[in-house]
Structure formats: C-alpha cells, structure tokens
Fold this sequence. Notes:
By secondary structure, this protein is of the alpha+beta class. Helix content is 17%, strand content 34%.
Amino acid sequence: MKKGILSLIVIAVFLPVVFAALSFGGEGDPAEVLREGCARCHPGVYEAINGYKYTHPDQFECVWCHLKSPPGGKEMDVHVDAYSRDNIMLLYLKENRPYRLRVKAIDREGGRAFSRTIEFIPGTLEEMAPDDGLPPVISNLRVEEVRSGIFYSAVIAWETNKPALSSIEYGRSADYGDSLKGHNHYATDHRMVIDRLIPRSDYFVRAVAEDVFGRSLASEPLKFRIKKPFLNSAAPVDVPAGTKPEVEDIGVSKVRGRPAFRWRTNMAARAIIFMEETRAPDAGGEPHYPGLGDRVEMGLKFCQKCHSDGIHSAGGGHPTGRVLWEKAKNAEGLPLGPGGMILCTTCHAPHGNGNEFILRKKALEICNACHYRE
C-alpha cells in the first residue's frame, strides 16, 4: 500500500529554479523547464512513463498534481460554457503578482484536452500585437434550431473572423426593439437563444460583434418565421467524426491595459481556465517549494481540480473519501488513504500503466477485487 502512495511523490524537483524561471522572466518553454528539472533527479520515473501503454495526459506537468498552493496564493477557476474555436478572456489580476494558468477544453461529446502551463506577471506583459484595424466580419447568420414549449424559442448562430463579444438585436419588425448580450468572453463561434416567440409570426434579427479593441459591426438583418420545431441539418460541422479535441495554442498579453488570455482549439469547445496566484519561491528553502501535497491532496483533491465534470461530477463515478466497508474489502494493490479513505489513486495509477483509464487492475477485475459475495 505504501508503495502505491509513494509513487505519487517521486517526480517534482529543482522547483525553486523552475518557479523563478517561469515567474520572473526565465527563458524557455515552461513545460520544457519543468520536464528538464524533474527528470534530472527522477529519470527512472520518466523512463517508466515512456514505457507505459496508457499514461496520464499531463504526466510532465508535475506542479499541478504534486505541489501545494503557495502561501497566500489564490486559486481562480473560470468556466466558459460557450463553444468556440478561438477565444479571448480579459482577466482582472494584480499587476505585480505571479500567476500560473492552463485551460481544459471540452467538446460537445465530452472529450477533453489540456493545454500546457504558462506562468506570467501581469505588469511585465506586452501589448497584444495590433491586427488589421478592421471590425469583426460576421458570417453565416442563421436560425439553427426552433424549440417548442409553453412558448417557442429560436437558437441563432453565426461566426466571426476574429474573437468578438456576442449580442443580437431582434423584433417583429426591421426596427428590432429587443436585444440580448451573450457570454462575457470574446469568441469566433456564437449561439444565442431568443425566448417567448409567437408561433406563425415573422421576426427580424441581426448580430452585433465587438472585438477586444472596441471595434464593432452589425450584420445584415435576417428574417425568419416561427412555424414548428426543427433542427438545421445544414449547420456547419466542426471536424470529422472521431476527432479528439486539442488545445492548439495559448498565450497571455495585454489589451488596453488589461491581461488578455487567448486560447485556440481544433474544434468548437467549452473550457475551464485553471488559474492560480503564486508567490516567489525561497531559494534557500524546500526544494519542492511550496511543499508536496499530502496523500489525500495528491491522491484525491488535486485530481478533483481538473476531473470535476462528466462521470466525475457530483453524484457520478465511484464514491471517494470515507466510506462504509460493510459489503466490501480492501484488496491488495489498491492503496487507501488515511483511515481507510478511498482516493482516486486507489483505483488509478497516477503516472500510467498497461490498463485502459490507467486502472490499477483490469476493468473486469478491479470491481470484483473489493466487491465480493460471501
């Protein structure tokens, strides 16, 4: 049991150097710096990982799974529920504090992908390079779906050639009269729902797009009639079936004096931005600054930072924490936490192994190992 738990804490090293380099202008890609620093003292772990058939997708991002939050640090997770390929989020951050950040992209099928980790100080960021100086171009404005209920509703969708805020104006005539504002981040894929529509009535709608530099433009009006529920089968398809999501690029710069985080994915995806305020490491202190997490943190709580949706959401998945062991037994090779706690790492090997979903035993064996009949 101890062997399984100890395998969690054998990866991070030389992190004073790493954090100093990442937070205060050191050269090199953060993922490369982390990989070089940790692998220098733990080559055996990396050799083992490279030999596994299945691995944790972020096996080289040691900091997220092994380290405590720095003293005084603050975690800030931002959920972006709109699906888009190219996105910009303006951030409210302290100018002289170091931050680390990464993003998880989630497609419409539940597939997930993580970006690399970046670290920065807002006060040292450069202004975003100016673009073509033109307002966003709106294309493919359409009614994508009509839904029925007590009232009818319509899903209005469109795209822009650069990240922009979403808003629409609509009404029973070309004078519109009503308006809606969408998500609070800049995106290239836009969808908004108009509620309380009257059947057999005509409506006019136009989209309005505003980019991060404040340039805006309205589309030509679209006239549509509410008849019956439908789903537009001609709606654009993001990527071929079976394509997995990928975070293609991320970066932070300043726009009009504010930090702006931009991320791009290979398909329209929603996102969770994981952001943490950090502190400078003490070069003369603990080499794994600010300290390794304990068994419960590394085996459960740190996992829940990223794995909190889908099967891992509240009410889904296997119970964790303290449980009653009346109808089950702890099996050999499935390490528990203090006091018999079930951790994520009870059933999953954190670095990887030869089993799907990095389970510690084969799928058909792992349940029967603890759940048995007399």
